[in-house]
Every structure is written in structure tokens, then in C-alpha cells.
Please model this.
Amino acid sequence: MKILLVDDEKHFKNIFSILSRKYNFQFECAENINEAIRLINENNFDLAVIDYSLPDGNGIELNRFIKQNHPRLKTALSTGYTDMVENVTNGDFDYYVRKDRIVLFMEKHLNT
Model:
């Protein structure tokens, strides 16, 4: 499995590094939408875990690009805005996960 993490917070890259060793998956990290688009166009990812708030836009914008150009790529909105996960009605993400539950989400997703 190959995963793209789109998040500008460095500690999430560290979390994914630990998880990748434990669950034997590859991952790339992008800190903004432009970098994410470049990586998506150059790789075949199975899952993109996308932060809502990015330096050059928001995760919903990136998800729209993915769904239009790479519809087989599964996407997960990751956000620290805990009420947003329950209230997002726009975006067409495959998954929604609160940042404080990202490890549980990844473990569940990788074990299926």
C-alpha cells in the first residue's frame, strides 16, 4: 500500500513514519496542495490522508482535484477541528478522521 500524507504539521510525518515501519507501507508527504498534486501525478497512491487546513488552500480543494483527475484514489479528510468531522457535508471524501484519532484510523484501515 502506498499512502500520501498531505499535512504541514511535521509531527504527523513522524507518526506516519512509525506506522509505516509497523505496518509495512510506503508513504510520501506533501506540505501543501501544489506539492501534493505533483506527487499524485507522479505516483500511484492507494490513499491520500489530507489535512483540512493547508498553507495554500484547504483539503476540500485538493480532494476535488483528486476526484476529477484520479477517481480511484481514496481520500480521507484529517482535521483538528473536531466538530468538522461530524458536520462536513461537502467534499466527497471517502473517509473523515479527527487528527486526535489518526493512529486508530490508520491501524484500522491497514488491518483490513
Remarks:
- The beta strands are 2-6, 26-30, 47-51, 53-54, 57-58, 74-79, 95-98.
